[in-house]
Specification:
Number of helices: 22
Mean pLDDT: 93
CATH class of the largest domain: Alpha Beta
Number of domains: 3
Distance between the termini: 21 Å
Shape: elongated
Structural class: alpha/beta
Oligomer: single chain
Radius of gyration: 29 Å
Largest sheet: 5 strands, parallel
CATH superfamily of the largest domain: Enolpyruvate transferase domain
Strand order of the largest sheet: 27-31-26-32-33
Number of strands: 33
CATH architecture of the largest domain: Alpha-beta prism
Helix content: 25-40%
Strand content: 15-25%
Length: 681
């Protein structure tokens, strides 16, 4: 999946509909490691496909696990049975704490007992995330670990000699007040060291994120290891513990990801609900307790097995004070919900935010202030007071390469629900690529349930004569903005092709209009599906284009296709090209272009295009045909080819496509409220 450098969110005014979330990251990476350590094959269904799981899968493959993606989408993992197949490897783990911490523990134990050398590293931010408490615990056990950079942080080198002995007879102590991932890593790895006797872990300090440890214990039990425990203070792995594959395992939808849509329902589902599929109130993930916090703020949440239904209840939302120790990650969503509350929301016990993908307390404070909120931050708390109804500010949101920042703050686009009339503002989110860490399709899912007024959904129209480069320019501008694209010419070409197939003549206006009205057309990437068959190649044939030009002069045909064209106006925006996009179809578009080039240049471009596709063509004939089409398009009585009165003229005869794209984007940005803001591009 490709992402634009930024996404602009127009003012959003409601939400409704059903959605399915990706699999839980916390469950996915735990399951992958456990399957990799087990003997036999584990079939994993509904596994999260994200940056974090990909680095874990790459690591398992490098260590000798067999990975088999089945036709039904399930992943079959044949594990190592607790025995190293590879004794030396350098593993890149990105910014995935759920991969770095448990792999450090597992490989340190395996290297110490069976011999080997492994280096683990990641992106620069991973080398700023502390791991010293886990390393200290493993060194107590007798594992060989060298710091390759700053002590207490990755990168690390893990090493040992075959036949090594670990000090399992004494209690291993680990801090619990920085990250529960350190305890989770030990719990996942130490069954490997239990052959000589039980292994005990004692937790120093107050354990944070206890629900995540519950996930770990639940999954260990699924893989045949029952951990004995004394509350959250002491854990004992029985002697002779061994990982046993459960055979098949389903990954439930991610509860942290659900928090954004639970919040969305609480904010914007005023008529029909937001329905979340794949997650129920019986989920094993601790972040399902976000539901309780959302209800405290006013959300109406109902649930059953594998489903949550969310509506707005109290409005404005109720400001709350909450100890977030149990939901530290999901609590970030509460900070975004606070923008819609009736007072100051205070979230406490969130010191762990400061050692995540970024310093999340500082980052959320900075970005919420851009929106107009008043924010107070401390070492382990944040207080958010929403903007006044007339105090919302358009903002360029910096995401700090942190997926949760991007997803949380996208909720600020619903400011029309509280902003004073006429003061609604759009939002620009930089580097939306960061959501790929856990939820690659986040923005597509958000747009599928978000609602906006048609006038708020931006449109750029690009009109011009045949072979002026409209389609290429529109496609690249749409890609840079992350918007939808409409090639209106393809609609007319598809109508022409369908008419030809049905034996309808070009001059039979009523007949062609009937064909247009019944057109079964769908765009899927490079494919253009007519009645379920890809006709992209046929649509570029000259006889189809010539007929398309003739039928486009029929008022009845244009009327039949107009509603279809209007339906392409969808969030987050639309770039469309044709002959009358700016004059007839979208006369209110905020940016209209008329693209021109000399007939000679256009004929040369079309000639090269056809030859490259293996279609024979004569340059002189192409030019004559283009000039004839131009004349027909200019002189037709309905929607003649001409610039809109407020269109900007762009002659690209002497420009590269990149130069034309840059020019269009510069014109677009000049119309945005972000251009004067720091970091706008």
């Amino acid at each position: 999946m490709s992402f634009p450098p930024f996404i602009d969110l127009p003012p959003l005014r409601g939400a409704a509909g059903s959605l399915r979330l990706p699999g839980s990251k916390s469950i996915s990476n735990r399951v992958l490691l456990l399957a990799g350590l087990s003997a036999g094959t584990t079939v994993v269904r509904d596994l999260l496909d994200s940056d974090d799981t990909r680095v874990m899968l790459d690591a398992l493959a490098a260590l000798g696990c067999k990975l088999d993606r089945r036709a039904d989408g399930a992943l079959a993992i044949t594990g190592l049975g607790g025995r190293l197949a590879v004794h030396e490897a350098a593993l890149f783990l990105g910014n995935a704490g759920t991969a770095m911490r448990p792999l450090t523990a597992a490989l340190a134990v395996l290297a110490a007992l069976q011999g080997g050398r492994f280096t683990l590293h990641g992106v620069p931010r991973m080398h700023e995330r502390p791991i010293g408490d886990l390393v200290d615990a493993l060194r107590q056990l007798g594992c060989g670990i060298d710091d390759l950079g700053q002590p207490g942080y990755p990168p690390l080198a893990l090493h040992g000699q075959a036949g090594g002995v670990l000090h399992t007879q004494r209690e291993i102590r680990v801090r619990g007040d920085v990250s529960s991932q350190f305890l989770t890593a030990l719990l996942l790895a130490l069954p490997l060291a239990s052959a000589a006797g039980p292994v005990a872990i004692a937790v120093d300090g107050e354990l944070i994120s206890k629900p995540y440890v519950e996930i770990t214990l639940n999954l260990l039990a699924r893989f045949g290891i029952t951990v004995q425990r004394d509350g959250f203070r002491r854990f004992t792995i029985p002697a002779g513990s061994a990982y046993r594959t459960p055979g098949e395992l389903h990954v439930e939808a991610d509860a942290s990801s659900a928090s954004y849509f639970i919040a969305l329902g609480a904010i914007a589902a005023t008529a029909d609900p937001v329905v979340i599929e794949g997650l129920g109130l019986d989920a094993i993930q601790g972040d399902i307790r976000f539901v309780d916090a959302a209800r405290a703020m006013g959300a109406q949440v109902d649930g059953g097995p594998g489903r949550l239904t969310v509506r707005r209840g109290a409005w404005p939302l109720r400001a709350i004070t909450l100890d977030c120790n149990h939901i530290p990650d999901a609590a970030m969503t509460l900070a975004a919900m606070a923008l819609y509350a009736d007072g100051t929301t205070r979230l406490t016990n969130i010191a762990s935010w400061r050692v995540k993908e970024t310093d999340r307390i500082a980052a959320m404070a900075a970005e919420l202030r851009k929106l107009g909120a008043s924010v107070t931050e401390g070492a382990d708390f944040i207080e958010v007071t929403p903007p006044a109804p007339s105090g919302w500010q358009p903002a360029v949101v910096h995401t700090y390469d942190d997926h949760r920042i991007a997803m949380c703050l996208s909720l600020a686009a619903f400011n029309p629900l509280v902003a004073a009339p006429g003061t609604e503002v759009p939002l620009r989110i930089l580097d939306p690529q960061c959501v790929a860490k856990t939820f690659p399709d986040y923005f597509e899912v958000l747009f599928s349930v978000a609602q906006a007024a048609d006038a708020d959904i931006p449109v750029i129209t690009i009109d011009g004569p045949t072979a002026s480069g409209k389609g290429t320019l529109a496609a690249q501008v749409a890609q840079r903005l992350g918007w939808h694209q409409l090639d209106s010419g393809l609609l007319y070409r598809a109508t022409a092709l369908a008419a030809q197939r049905q034996g309808v003549a070009a001059d039979d206006e009523a007949g062609v209009a009937r064909v247009a009205a019944a057109l079964q057309l769908r765009f899927d990437g490079e494919q253009v599906l007519l009645d379920g068959t890809d006709v992209a190649g046929e649509l570029r044939q000259e006889h189809v284009g010539s007929m398309a030009s003739r039928i486009s002069a029929h008022p009845a045909v244009r009327g039949a296709l107009q509603a279809l064209q209007l339906g392409f106006r969808r969030l987050p925006g639309l770039v469309c090209d044709g002959r009358d996009m700016g004059t007839v179809i979208f006369p209110g578009a905020p940016l209209k272009l008329f693209l021109t080039a000399s007939p000679a240049m256009r004929a040369e471009r079309r000639h090269k295009q056809l030859i490259s596709k293996g279609i024979p063509a004569i340059l002189a004939d192409l030019r004559a045909d283009l000039e004839a089409r131009d004349e027909r398009d200019r002189t037709r009585t309905v929607a003649p080819l001409k610039p809109a009165q407020d269109a900007l003229l762009l002659d690209n005869s002497g420009q590269t496509i990149a130069q034309s794209v840059d020019q269009v984007l510069a014109w677009w940005d000049a119309r945005q409220p972000f251009r004067a803001l720091p970091g706008a591009a």
